[in-house]
Amino acid sequence: MLSSNFVLDGLSWQNTTIYAFGTAAVALLISYFASEGYKLSHIPTVGSPLPFLSFFSAFKFMFRAKSMIISGVKHHKTLCKVPEFDQWVVVAGDRELMDDIRKAPEHVLSAMTHLDELLQGPYTFGTSTILTTYHLPLLRGTFTKSIPHLFPEVLSEVRDSFFDVIPPSQEWKALHLQSSIMHIIARVSNLTFVGRPLCQNKEFIDLSVRFTQDALKAAIILRPLPSIIKPIVNYFISNISETRKKVKDLLTPHINLRREAMKGGSEYAGKQMDLLTWLLDEAKGEDATDDALTSMLLFTNFGAIHAPAMALAHSIFYLAANPKYVELLRDEVAGITSRLGWTKDAIDEMVITDSFIKESQRLHAGAYIALIRKALRDFTFSNGVTIPKGTTVSGSAVSNHLDEKLYPDPHTFDPLRFVKMASESTKKFDITAVGLDLIVFGYGRHACPGRFFAAVEMKLILAYLVTHYDMKFAKEGVRPSDLTVGINVLPNPFAEVLFRKRV
Ligand code: HEM
């Protein structure tokens, strides 16, 4: 009895195991055929295309995105797909196909739907803020045109914020670079967004920087999670609602003052020239509530604080590690300001400073891919390959930025590279010029509308820094390595730079 039971138990164990493996295999096959990977099986894969194994490739992609994208583009030439934990990203390596992405209309390949997913809109800025567009013509038009007019105030805000963030001292003082530079940028940008006195209100600036950092953190953590658990995780990791409320409380009295003044007509005495004024002029309906205006300012602050601060930190790392670069910029700035003073014309003439920042952007762009879009319907490239609705598609920035046909000795930082290129061509090579050769500001209809302001702001800050301060690393001459997470490239977030007032 015992032995027959044992045999039966053995058989049923065997059967159970067979059933379990069989069910798992069928489930795996069904999930594979229903998966995004299968729908994209006609696109060559970097890593493994198989379920589970692709998870390991996604893990590898977290740390090796640069080499995986470069090798994918090199081997597959036109299109390949790379694995992220929650999706496949199709990468175009071919310029014609990148141009297809640039030219595709928003209702086919959507930049904004991608941004809403990337930034986890419902948990950060709000999907309605990310998808609205009324502010874009303002940024491209009125805001950009006002830069020369606002320049004197921008300069004085640069002076004041340097004085507060890097107090002039004869002694070397170590500062956490990223947070210092973010605070300077936040103040200078907010001069043009909300004006004085709010841009000098320490609480407002601290909250704007904190919101930018917290939103980014929440987006990174929440994105790969299943939708059902996002609200729970968000509850534990995020202070965003509280920060937004505090910003709104500080902003509302200023909104009310301006609304009151607007009652006498849109062109009232003492009308401030800043983004808040122009948003109030343009916003209608849902966009015009205090909540929506607060979210819009926080969203614009995000674009205006994070990217320029990262770009400047990369440039300052080159300066702190190489005294000869500091001298190079100092000579240019001293020569030009002695003729033109600290003016917008002087900043425009600083072609070496411009080339320095652009070269640093080339080697340390914020992401290895660009022109990232979500397909809202099936999309066929000019080579006949179709990607299905729902696919995330992009162009490889890194393989262009390191292409030796475009940039001889591409891995070497050459601060004069773009000065030389401009002298040999009729094309424009300044920071604001956009194209496929250098795609740090995007290209086409979604190209960054803030880049003209960003260029002036970054050049002014760098010129001011080299003129008034010495800088170095504690370990002299060693530039800290970047932090890369998947497609994202960040200047080392832990690095400290020593500053001393220049005698
Ligand atoms: C170094 C500084 C900056 C970098 C590297 C940068 C980069 C970018 C990139 C890559 C895009 C997406 C382009 C695309 O998808 O094709 C973008 C869009 C945008 N940026 Fe910037 N940006 C910078 C500064 C700024 C500033 C200062 C502002 C605000 C004043 C700003 C506001 C925006 C806005 C509103 C968009 C969305 C444009 C649209 O969808 O049409 N950015 N930026």
TrEMBL record:
It comes from the Eukaryota. This is Cytochrome P450. Keywords: Heme, Iron, Membrane, Metal-binding, Monooxygenase, Oxidoreductase, Transmembrane, Transmembrane helix. The chain crosses the membrane at residues 16-34, 46-63. Gene3D superfamilies: Cytochrome P450. Its cofactor is heme. Pfam families: p450. GO terms for cellular component: membrane. InterPro entries: Cyt_P450, Cyt_P450_CS, Cyt_P450_E_grp-IV, Cyt_P450_sf. Heme binds at residue 448. Belongs to the cytochrome P450 family. It is found in: Membrane. One of its GO terms (molecular function) is oxidoreductase activity, acting on paired donors, with incorporation or reduction of molecular oxygen.
